[in-house]
Automatic annotation (TrEMBL), chain A:
<comment type="similarity">
    <text>Belongs to the binding-protein-dependent transport system permease family.</text>
</comment>
<keyword id="KW-1133">Transmembrane helix</keyword>
<feature type="transmembrane region" description="Helical">
    <location>
        <begin position="20"/>
        <end position="40"/>
    </location>
</feature>
<feature type="domain" description="ABC transmembrane type-1">
    <location>
        <begin position="80"/>
        <end position="271"/>
    </location>
</feature>
<dbReference type="GO" id="GO:0005886">
    <property type="term" value="C:plasma membrane"/>
</dbReference>
<dbReference type="Pfam" id="PF00528">
    <property type="entry name" value="BPD_transp_1"/>
</dbReference>
<dbReference type="InterPro" id="IPR050901">
    <property type="entry name" value="BP-dep_ABC_trans_perm"/>
</dbReference>
From TrEMBL, chain B:
<protein>
    <submittedName>
        <fullName>Sugar ABC transporter substrate-binding protein</fullName>
    </submittedName>
</protein>
<keyword id="KW-0732">Signal</keyword>
<dbReference type="GO" id="GO:0055052">
    <property type="term" value="C:ATP-binding cassette (ABC) transporter complex, substrate-binding subunit-containing"/>
</dbReference>
<keyword id="KW-0813">Transport</keyword>
<dbReference type="GO" id="GO:0042956">
    <property type="term" value="P:maltodextrin transmembrane transport"/>
</dbReference>
<feature type="signal peptide">
    <location>
        <begin position="1"/>
        <end position="20"/>
    </location>
</feature>
<comment type="similarity">
    <text>Belongs to the bacterial solute-binding protein 1 family.</text>
</comment>
TrEMBL record, chain C:
<dbReference type="Pfam" id="PF00528">
    <property type="entry name" value="BPD_transp_1"/>
</dbReference>
<feature type="domain" description="ABC transmembrane type-1">
    <location>
        <begin position="95"/>
        <end position="311"/>
    </location>
</feature>
<keyword id="KW-0472">Membrane</keyword>
<feature type="transmembrane region" description="Helical">
    <location>
        <begin position="129"/>
        <end position="154"/>
    </location>
</feature>
<feature type="transmembrane region" description="Helical">
    <location>
        <begin position="183"/>
        <end position="209"/>
    </location>
</feature>
<keyword id="KW-1133">Transmembrane helix</keyword>
<dbReference type="InterPro" id="IPR035906">
    <property type="entry name" value="MetI-like_sf"/>
</dbReference>
Length: 286, 441, 322
């Protein structure tokens, strides 16, 4: 965050525009965050304030009992571990594969390129509900059912198309001349890629990684169908156990959901810093 | 179902290709005799899929069953995993195609038919005697396990709906004893309305417009049915005078005593959370819902702990009580299970008399009439027991899931409750749609 | 990043520029291209290719649970499943409803997300940070829970919205059912869908916008262009590839919305709330008609292709995906 050194044309038209933007920003934030606030608030509410005709918009008696009920529900630890393994493996593998493919599309000419672009688009159009059984049969035949790796494989197939498309846009956005100039200066193609293209593509990588992470962190139905051992279930599957035919344990559900959302937000807070530095490194000095 | 096994079977086999990756002998393993005597040296893992309710409401019964199972098969590991109601059939379908097959699965009793018909479960007709008191199984549940004269699963537990009421409100409105007939109930409701009617949220009897389990109980009470099988065709009964009479009574109750939404059902929001707010004097709920009204942490209201009572829903046609829908669960052994002996032994332990008593304590109706009769003498259970002696079941047809999934009854009832359609018109329409779904189009 | 520190070392490594004869031939660009996509192709062909072929086959068979459980081959019935769908008069209504629903949702999502991305760019640093955190929190909220919370907000008994609106003088919202009227019902559903879709689109667009050199916009401003002109003449053309992908994806997702409607209607959507995702569940997956479901899926893909092909062709013409 400290690398903002070059800011000569900082505020050409100060005041009005920025203030208006800030006001809009705050209003939108308040409106959009409300459901999230309601989730977190409910997680801290004592039982008698949960559901009331006159809603409690804050609580004077915050309690941790919902959290303790959620943490002590069976398999919380297992589910957390499994979700971390699945989501982060998916994210990292997807980033690498997608970046390679994006460069292939944006920088190289080869036969079947259009067909490839088209194919990864079509793949996204197939409704999930129709794919569950065929996917299960396929994973069953390669012995990937009831295994975390099978779930990672499935998620990869779901996040790769978007990741490739997005990164392709970002790679294409870097003028080829920049790379060529670097190569004239003596860089190899690989060096030029790492020094010129990668920093400029960084915002795209961040957007893609959040996408891949959140998709695989929150996915429910495939994880539920593919993993039959309770020790192997992921957080969304674990969370649904608070909804039974005997009603919903709202307090524990909201506490569980709050804990589940936390790692994603923390992860983002960490890479957020790199977005800023990545941006300045690329765009300003590039 | 059009099974056109055409001459193109060869072509089909080619087209199907890898789909036939099962062993192609789903039925082959399901013929041998089941033996639950036990084996001290048998090793391996028995996989059981129960619904999540067992985890949250009667974990002690599961534990007891496994303990008793281990007396017979001490070295066999029992792995119980708990399923969510929403998607468990998708998961089961997928699993049944592959190698990771659960040995014992719990099924909702309205979900079983297509599984029985399509060979998913093991035929237990000759092994019925392995299960406690199987001659006296609850009729509704037993029906849901029977297909074309053969038995494919074991009744696990049932539910029965009774009326939960606010004792304090009744007293203040001058009602000393709970109503014994539907007419009395309507009169009492009127008294409650008079006393509390100034509260715009007050419902003397909370009755959402899509609460089809209750509406169909009225139909049944008036002598009607949803449908009956004549020969190999289903004939709808919802346009009969009896059904129309029952639904007219239901609408009267909904109109005069309820301020519940006419376009929602009893689970959205959960009706006990509404009663917990203190503006409802009666609701028609399952055994566990009464306790949930004053439970802490799930939307209940602990302050109402001492003011909730219950009575059997009174009949409008002179019966002991209005009969409830037999909503419950069965336990089945999958046809592909490698260890039917273990599976049967565990199922028998889970549905033993002592275990069923644990389930009763959790607010369920037991799986046999023997236990039901015993329950009638227990004041805490008598209302539930007398509403379940002749409880009703949905038509046992592979077309039934279609009726539920397309919400034919709910939408028809909602039209009645809102007054968009007359009872007779809505009945005619529902009847036609039900017949079409049950007979396959 | 630390690009500057590495530069000298590596430049030195590549020191002798001209003389040294090429040790090995450079790979042809074509070959590099193939090598780069190879891992992706393996994953996609493996995980999705086979199931897709299977799906297409299923749609011309009659696979019931019997075949599924026993592994017996399913009978081939040709185009019977397709005939069944296309002869269902309700199907066309459902498709029309879905198209309208998708159009409204995609348009709203894109407009609002664009505004947000621009606001993020124009706002102060703290406000930008606030917005990103809000967007991530919204995005990170598990869908099971967010639909439940929205249900709660619009509940007719406990609805926070009913209570709030009821505070207004002269408004009685006691027991107001938002879903009783189809328009207001779809309004609420659209709100849930758009709310959930904005974070992804806004963050992606913002990532794109931050790639647009500020100098370009400054230059346009100096030339006297107003904010709208700058956006449409400078920013948007650069962002076009990203708009293409988020639009196409939003169309694909919104076309298949299921969960929000299903949960909002308590698992029992009325006929007027049947959009394609719900329709296919009610007709096929919820009742184990897998072949029919496969046929509906194939029809869905064809419909989506029709909708998107126009868009893609435009992109092709403009050389974005050449």
């Amino acid at each position: 965050m400290t690398s903002h050194t070059s800011t000569p044309p900082r505020r050409p038209r100060p005041g009005g525009g920025r203030i208006a933007a800030n006001v809009v920003g705050v209003v939108v934030s308040v409106l959009m965050i409300f459901p999230v606030y309601w989730m977190v608030l409910t997680a801290f509410k004592p039982g008698d304030e949960l559901m009331t005709y006159t809603p409690h918009f804050a609580t004077l008696h915050p309690t941790l009992s919902n959290f303790s009920r959620a943490i002590h529900a069976p398999h919380f630890g297992d589910a957390l571990g499994n979700s971390v393994i699945i989501a982060f493996s998916t994210m990292i593998i997807a980033l690498v594969l997608a970046l390679l493919a994006a460069v292939a599309i944006a920088r190289f000419r080869w036969y079947g390129r259009r067909a490839f672009i088209f194919a990864i688009l079509v793949v996204q159009m197939v409704p999930m509900s129709a794919l569950i059984i065929p996917l299960y049969l396929m994973l069953n035949s390669i012995d990937q059912v009831n295994k975390l790796s099978g779930v990672v494989l499935t998620y990869l197939a779901f996040v790769l198309p978007f990741s490739i498309w997005t990164l392709r846009g970002f790679v294409a956005g870097v003028p080829a001349e920049l790379e060529e100039a670097a190569m004239v200066d003596g860089c190899t193609r690989l060096q030029a890629f790492f020094r010129i293209v990668l920093p400029l593509v960084f915002p795209g990588l961040v957007a893609t990684s959040i996408y891949a992470l959140i998709q695989s962190w929150n996915e429910y139905i495939m994880a539920y169908v593919l993993l039959s051992d309770q020790q192997k279930e992921t957080l969304p599957v674990w969370l649904v156990s608070f909804v039974s035919a005997h009603g919903v344990d709202y307090g524990a559900l909201m506490a569980g959901a709050t804990m589940m959302a936390l790692p994603v937000v923390v992860f983002f807070a960490i890479i957020q810093r790199h977005v800023a530095s990545g941006l300045t490194a690329g765009a300003v000095k590039g | 179902m059009k099974h056109r096994l055409m001459a193109a079977a060869g072509l089909a086999a080619v087209l199907l290709g890898a789909a036939a990756c099962g062993n192609g002998s789903g039925a082959a393993g399901s013929t041998g005799k089941i033996d639950t005597k036990g084996d001290k040296n048998a090793t391996g893992t028995l996989t059981v899929w129960l619904q999540v309710d067992a985890q949250s409401s009667w974990p002690n019964a599961v534990k007891a069953a496994t303990t008793s199972f281990h007396k017979k098969f001490p070295k066999v590991k029992v792995k119980v995993s708990y399923q969510a109601w929403n998607d468990h059939l998708t998961k089961l379908d997928a699993a049944l195609t592959g190698k990771h097959v659960p040995d014992v699965v719990e099924m909702g009793d309205t979900e079983t038919t297509s599984y029985l018909a399509n060979g998913a479960f093991r035929d237990l007709t000759d092994s019925k005697n392995l299960f406690a008191d199987s001659a006296n199984w609850n009729s509704g549940l037993a029906a849901s396990c029977t297909y074309e004269g053969k038995v494919y699963c074991v009744p696990y537990y049932s539910g029965s709906r009774i009326v939960f009421y606010r004792k304090d409100m009744f007293a203040k409105a001058g009602i000393s004893t709970p109503p014994k007939t539907l007419a009395e109930l309507m009169t009492d409701g009127g008294k409650l309305n008079k006393k509390y009617g100034s509260d715009p949220k007050f419902s003397a009897f909370y009755m959402p417009g899509k609460f089809w389990y209750s509406a169909m109980s009225f139909v049944r009470d008036a002598g009607g049915t949803i449908a009956t099988k004549k020969g190999d065709k289903w004939v709808g009964g919802l346009d009969s005078p009896a059904a129309i009479k029952g639904l007219t009574q239901w609408k009267a109750l909904s109109d005069q005593l309820s301020k519940a939404s006419k376009t929602s059902d009893e689970a959205n929001p959960q009706q006990y959370t509404v009663m917990a707010q203190g503006h409802v004097a009666m609701m028609y709920g399952l055994g566990w819902e009464g306790g949930s009204v004053y439970a802490d942490g799930n939307g209940g209201n602990p302050k109402l702990k001492d003011s909730i009572g219950s009575f059997a829903m009174p009949s409008g046609s002179g019966k002991e009580a209005m009969q409830s829908f037999a909503g419950g669960s069965d336990l089945a052994i999958t046809a592909k299970s490698q260890h039917p002996d273990w599976a049967a032994a565990w199922t028998a332990a889970m549905t033993s008399q002592s275990n069923e008593k644990l389930l009763m304590k959790a607010g369920n109706v037991p799986n046999t009439t023997t236990l039901l009769e015993q329950a009638k003498s227990d004041p805490a259970l008598s209302a539930a027991a007398s509403s379940a002696t002749d409880s009703w079941m949905v038509p046992i047809s592979t077309g039934w899931p279609k009726v539920e999934k397309s919400s034919i009854l709910q939408n028809g009832l909602s039209a009645i409750a809102t007054g968009k359609k007359s009872v007779a018109d809505a009945c005619k329409e529902m009847n036609q749609q039900v017949e079409q779904a049950l007979n396959g189009s | 990043m630390s690009a500057s520190t590495q530069a000298p070392a590596q430049a030195a490594g590549a020191a002798p520029p001209g003389p040294a004869p090429r040790r090995r031939r450079r790979l042809a660009p074509k070959t590099i291209g193939y090598l780069l996509i190879l891992p992706t192709v393996v994953v996609l062909a493996g995980v999705q290719g086979y199931p897709l072929v299977k799906l297409a086959l299923l749609s011309v068979q009659d696979l019931t649970q019997r075949e599924l459980f026993s592994g017996l081959p399913a009978p081939f019935i040709g185009l019977g499943n397709y005939a069944k769908i296309l002869s269902d008069p309700e199907f066309f209504l459902v498709v029309l409803r879905t198209v309208a629903f998708t159009a409204a949702n995609v348009a709203l999502t894109l407009v609002l997300a664009t505004v947000l991305a621009l606001v993020m760019r124009a706002a102060s640093r703290w406000c930008r940070l606030l917005l990103t955190v809000v967007l991530i929190c919204v995005w990170a909220m598990p869908q099971v829970v967010s639909t439940l919370v929205f249900n709660w907000l619009f509940d007719y008994e406990f609805g926070v919205v009913n209570w709030l609106v009821g505070r207004l003088p002269g408004v009685d919202m006691n027991g107001h059912d938002w879903y009783a009227n189809t328009i207001s019902g779809f309004g609420v559903i659209t709100m849930i869908v758009v709310w959930g879709a904005i974070p992804f689109v806004a963050i992606t667009l913002y990532a794109g916008i931050s790639q647009v050199p500020k100098e370009l916009e400054e230059a346009a401003r100096v030339d006297g262009a107003n904010g709208r002109q700058i956006f449409f003449r400078v920013t948007y053309p650069i962002l076009r590839p990203i708009y293409t992908i988020v639009t196409v994806l939003s169309v694909i997702w919104d076309f298949q919305v299921f969960n929000q409607v299903w949960v909002a209607r308590g698992g029992r959507p009325e006929p007027q709330y049947q959009i394609l995702g719900v329709y296919s569940f009610v007709r096929a997956f919820g009742v184990n008609e897998y072949s029919l479901g496969a046929a509906i899926a194939v029809v869905t893909v064809v419909l989506l292709l029709v909708f998107t092909v126009f868009y893609i062709r435009q992109s092709l013409r403009q050389g974005e995906i050449d």
